[in-house]
Amino acid sequence: MYLILLTFIAILATGVQGNGACQNENYINRTSTDEFYFPADWNEDESPPRQSAGQGCSWNINIPQGYYAKVIISGNIYDNHSHFELYDYYGNVEFFKVGDRTKPYFFVGPKFLLSIENESTAYYGFKIEWLKFPQGIDYNAGIGGVPQVVNITKDVLAAEFSAITGISLLAFPADLNNIDTLRSTFVFEGRDYNGNFVGSLYHLYLKSNQYLSSGQMIYVVNVQARYVMDQLLVQEAGYTKGITAYEGLNCPPSSTCRKPLQPGNPKSGLVYIGNQTQTLTAITMDKTSSLSVYYGGITNFGFYKTYTGSTIQSLLPLTFAPGITQYIISGGRTSFTFQFSG
């Protein structure tokens, strides 16, 4: 896919020479300073420079083993047909018109592509920085029937998780309006960054489901301190792999929150992590289905109670304790309404 995108851009994009101009098909390797700027005389503390109209430019950036890349884009593209484009090696594509230098992008090797199209005059500059992955392990845990919650983006963190039946990961952003903080956290199969790359927590979160590892060990590394409390729920996959539609119940504190849930095969589920009481005030579910509630892991030890679809309406409202609370549906489409308090 990456090679097809390169060919497509090479055909469509035409370099323009002169003041405020860029070229197409630039190939950039790690520099002696570990930094690359465009334009070369710009830096991220300055206002974005003016760029000539009618340009199509691309940069192929190589990332050596043991490094990742951080990209800061500053500026705006104003016409309706133009945008910034970012393509990683693994098929993720992003299009945007405004580059915010406070919201960097992060990439792992072997390469990624930055492309810019602007029909009218635009203002932009960007910086690429090559940085080494953190060394060593800050957090190491074997996971069993008791899930673990890790503050994953507050600090630089390298963590290793293992379980006999594999690992389940589910991210909980601290701010649903700013999930970009998850971009700096990478997931690899195995014990370090030399394993198979799975994706960033940002892209895994967008899939609205758990990630299940292919092996017994997962390496999760947050390469930049974001100073926020994004959380990662880590469970043994053997307890969750039958839940094919599995989402976080991530709602603002002290709010009323409606959460639809698609049917799973055989099960679907919501999981809450936090310090608020959850009061279920309304639910729509099949009368032949059941809702099972667990505190902590989805185990016999964590089991609290099961409610049937035919009788649950007469029991509302139902109040559940803070912590890790799991709502598992046996089948069918479901809609929950919760009131959070405490």
From TrEMBL:
It comes from the Eukaryota. Keywords: Signal. Residues 240-338 form the DUF7591 domain. Residues 1-18 form the signal peptide. Residues 22-134 form the CUB-like domain. Pfam families: CUB_2, DUF7591, DUF7592. Residues 147-222 form the DUF7592 domain. This is Uncharacterized protein. It comes from Caenorhabditis brenneri (Nematode worm).
